[in-house]
Amino acid sequence: MTKLSKVPAVTVFFWVIKVLCTTVGETASDYLNVNLGLGLSGTAVAAGACLLVALAVQFKLDRYQPAIYWLVVVLVSVFGTLVTDILTDSLHFPLEWSTIIFSVALGLTFVAWYLKEGTLSIHSVFTRRRELFYWLAILFTFALGTATGDLVAEQLGVGYLNTGLLVLSIVAAAAVAWRLGLDPVLAFWIAYILTRPLGASLGDYLSQPASEGGLGLGAAATSAIFLSAILAVVVYLAVTRKDRIEIPDAPAAKSGSRPGLQAGVVVAVLLALGITGYVVRSAQLEARAAASTSVDRPLGDLSAFRAIARDMTQAVEAADWTRAKSGASALEVAWDAAQAQLQRMSPAKWTVMDDAIDVVLRQARATSPNASTAAAALQALTAVIDTLDHPK
Fold first, then answer.
1. Is the pLDDT score of 162 beyond 90?
2. Which of 325, 307, 306 is nearest to 315 (CA)?
3. How far apart are CA 171 and CA 188, in angstroms?
4. Nearest CA to 85 among 48, 28, 41, 22?
5. Are 344 and 272 in contact (CB under 8 A)?
6. Helices then strands (H, E): number in the chain?
7. 302-324 residue pLDDT tens
8. Which residue spans within the chain are E strands per DSSP?
């Protein structure tokens, strides 16, 4: 007699689809939010409703079904990304606090799961309660991965490509540690959390314009390519059944390792490295911000943003929406790259300009853009820039 697992085996296919889903979570949320004009709240409501329906189907199944399982993962990826984005962009909640809150929430979920079930292994998910703990943990890993990735890439100004390389090196270190004796369950959850910022970095690299160091595929094309890749792998797994798990009725022998002690050591090391890096990088940015701030220029020299806004205005007046959307991409990339320093120079004034830029991006990327509203948004942004940047 065997029990049938509700989740897939951890194989190379698992990690390939996980990274693909993570990338889709980043690009699809951006496409729905900006390109289709749903906004963060509208996209979150739509994604949340779809997620609830998919989860209801997943819980009713008596075994792992690749199509439903990975559909839930994609939707959790989108929804988890949106939760952090709403806190950050709409409520202006500090990424530091989002990272702490989601870390605590994930930690409490793991503690409750372990106390109730005696294991955190996904290879033992065959009951309703274990599956509930599993999906709650998955949601928090996506939200935490989004907050941590954005904190490092944007708030600390490391950039998405460098953040992706940093995350990849930590995942590689976890893999080596696992080979050397690190508890496999601990290694799995470390990798699962960190593949979120890794996938986001990949998505941003593919979707950003070539002029900004990306491949210029755009959010829509990137999402379509990765969804097609996910579909192809899922169909392959559904046919071959290579990722099915059968769980014997007899309890598995316990490992001789000490996962609790290992987890404590790993968490302590990651916290020490993370806090040290945050403090050092923040000090560097604070010094740069202090050197660039003046009474007449609280956010420093904003002439580059004025030039982009001017070019976009000319494009809108000429009804050249291809050029206007290209300018929107350049504006977004430049603003994100400058965030780490500008936000420290004057958080309140940075927020004012950030809100004005968000309006411009939505208008320029709308499915059916309106020239008058786009021009008004650009005029409002230019007025903000003129107010903040008036050197003597």
1. no
2. 325
3. 10
4. 41
5. no
6. 13, 2
7. 999 999 999 999 999 999 999 99
8. 2-4, 246-248
